[in-house]
Amino acid sequence: MEKQKKVLVGLVVTLMKLNSVEVVVKMSHLHERVRMEKISEWVKFLQDLVPGCNKVTGKAVMLVEINYVQSL
């Protein structure tokens, strides 16, 4: 949580120095980073649910694993 506060404070200071177009672009990048972190957390959560699934896998394998979890 402390890391997130530092990132937000840094972002606010940066945004205060930019024009409106640059602010929109920065906010878009921040939103995308947050979205990717959430997806990453969910993928890790799902991988922890499936036995032996703690390595990087392809999309097809992930779909099989999701179907496995849903069948439980």
Kindly list the characteristics that best describe this protein.
BHLH domain-containing protein, 72 residues, mainly alpha, single chain, DNA-binding transcription factor activity, bHLH_ZIP_TF, 3 helices, protein dimerization activity
Order of helices and strands: HHH
The helix tally amounts to 3
* Protein structure class: mainly alpha
Shape: elongated
Helix percent band: over 70%
Structural domain tally: 1
| Strand runs, count | 0
Low-pLDDT residue spans:
none
Radius of gyration of CA atoms, rounded to a whole number: 18 Å
Distance between the termini: 34 Å
* Biggest pleated-sheet summary: none
Percent strand equals under 5%
Mean pLDDT: 78
GO molecular function: DNA-binding transcription factor activity; protein dimerization activity
GO cellular component, one term: nucleus
Organism: Citrus x changshan-huyou
Protein name: BHLH domain-containing protein
Note down, in words, how this protein is organized.
The protein is mainly alpha-helical and 72 residues long. It has one domain (2-71). Helix content is 81%, strand content 0%. The chain contains three helices and no strands. The protein has helices at residues 2-16, 20-49, 59-71. The longest helix has 30 residues, at 20-49. The two termini are 34 Å apart.
